[in-house]
Design a protein that fits this description.
Blueprint lengths: L1 H16 L2 H10 L4 H23 L6 H22 L12 E5 L3 H9 L5 E5 L5 H16 L5 E5 L5 H10 L6 E3 L5 H6 L6 E6 L2 E7 L5 H8 L3
Parallel strand pairs: 2-3, 3-4
Antiparallel strand pairs: 1-6, 2-5, 5-6
Helix pairs in contact: 1-3, 2-3, 3-4
Length: about 230
């Protein structure tokens, strides 16, 4: 029985390695923090590997064989986890750039949309593949979570056909897109880095992140109101 339980646990650990995205999405849908959700599969794989070690050690003969097995099995599974699901430095970046801007055309545009806006304006570009990935994988999920954070997107255009085309291609029609004439000051604000994410609260631009800076801790920080 112990033998069967050990191999069953080991099999579950391997399944978890290849189910990281499903586990992450389930945790996000359950409104757990972004950082914890991103690490949850690692925790599951580690715990299952430890359980498997103690369930299967009896198979081995000799003290050193058991010691090596105790360390090598978890390391092998975590190594497989990293190979299948690499960790990128950008996933755990939080800082971005602190700002304190009281007068800007973006503030006027957002004010017209909602006077007490408190949240994120994502500045995206129609031809930017990273913008589309961020919209599909991050922004749509943020919008579905139970938070008080406002979120809108701008393509910096009044062309409704282009806005609707982008929303359709990124399956983000549930998100709100600002429609306004092109403003060079918005591109200057983000220094031409698409996508960028601007945090507005109390009528001020307080923070901004480039795509590579919007890691899981930053998302938790945003949802907490900075």
């Amino acid at each position: 029985m112990q033998y069967i339980l050990g191999f069953l646990t080991l099999s579950l650990a391997v399944v978890a390695v290849f189910s990281r995205e499903a586990i992450f999405n389930a945790a996000i849908d359950a409104n757990l923090s972004w950082t914890f959700s991103s690490l949850l599969t690692w925790v599951i794989v580690l715990l299952l590997s430890i359980f498997a070690v103690f369930a299967l050690r009896f198979i081995l003969k000799g003290k050193w064989a058991k010691i090596l097995f105790t360390f090598l099995l978890p390391l092998a599974l975590l190594g497989l986890m990293f190979a299948v699901n690499p960790i990128y430095v950008g996933d755990y970046v939080k800082k971005g750039e602190a700002l304190n801007i009281e007068n800007h055309v973006l503030l006027d545009i957002v004010e017209d949309y909602k006077s007490d806006f408190d949240g994120i304006v994502a500045v995206v570009d129609y031809n930017c593949p990273f913008c589309r990935i961020a919209t599909k994988e991050r922004l749509t999920k943020i919008n579905l979570r139970k938070t008080d954070i406002d979120m809108v997107l701008t393509l910096n255009t009044s062309d409704l056909e282009k806005i609707e085309g982008y929303a359709a291609s990124t399956k983000s029609k549930s998100l709100h897109y600002l429609q306004h004439k092109p403003e060079a000051d918005i591109v200057e604000l983000i220094k031409g880095a698409f996508p960028s994410f601007v945090y507005i609260k109390n009528g001020k631009i307080l923070h901004k992140w480039r795509n590579s800076e919007l890691g899981f801790p930053a998302l938790d920080w945003i949802e907490g109101g900075l």
